[in-house]
Amino acid sequence: MAKITAAEVNKLRKSTGAGMMDCKKALVEADGDFDKAIEVLRKKGQKVAAKRADRDSAEGVAIAKLNADNTKGAIVSLNCETDFVAKNEDFITLGNDLAELALGVSSKEELLKTEYKGITVEEKLTEQTGVIGEKIEIGSFETLEAPYVGAYIHAGNKIAVITGLSKNVEGAEEAAKNVSMQAAAMNPIALNEEGVDQETIDKENEIAKDTLRQEGKPEEMLDKIAKGKIKRYFKDNTLVNQIFIKDSKQSVAEYVKSVDSELEVVGFKRVGLGE
Description:
By secondary structure, the chain is an alpha+beta fold. The protein contains eleven helices and eight strands. It has helices spanning 6-16, 20-29, 34-51, 83-86, 89-102, 108-113, 121-132, 172-186, 198-214, 222-237, 252-259; strands at 59-66, 72-80, 115-116, 119-120, 137-145, 148-153, 159-165, 265-272. α1 crosses α2, α2 (20-29) packs across α3 and α9 (198-214) crosses α10. It is found in: Cytoplasm.
């Protein structure tokens, strides 16, 4: 049996993030072979992952990243089972690394197949499931491209937003961040009226009419009054029409126009954990 040194254990720990005892056991099982020890830990991860496949992974971190010229943004949520793990520095670092990788791919499936530290992201998640003892997986994956993209991550990494603007102008960075903060706080369902699906509109229309009937309004007036309520619904729930949280005298669209008369919000993506 090969003699296992503290330096070898520490090297394996740094490479995998596994605990000292797990690393030592893996090296003993692998008879001191470093690569085989990594494989031992990965197989352990596969076993743990299989056992915890049905567990709820509603905790975690939502991380947003931007490319160098602010023309693309990405959000990845890395999910786990407990808030304790979500606050672990190594876990948060992994979330940040995956969000960086997301800037170079177009889907969650592609991200899972991407190489990360000599193995695929999918293999890394399985490995970390074994190391941590909790189900670790990528939850949400979002990307956005625009002439200018900004981001905001709410304290605690529970909400992340990326916002696209129509131009890269002076003040675009602050504007994109402010609009992203708006989306984080107010959770709009769409960018504007056109982004609201017909099923939602029909549902809100029926709710409005039922409420009006209960209030005793005449049947012939329901359509007209309901239209007004739908208009209010759009104002409250679409990003550009919402009242700007930093200045209640203007809408989000009006705020953006105050930065530059031709500036518009062209898109946003929001990921909130546990919502």
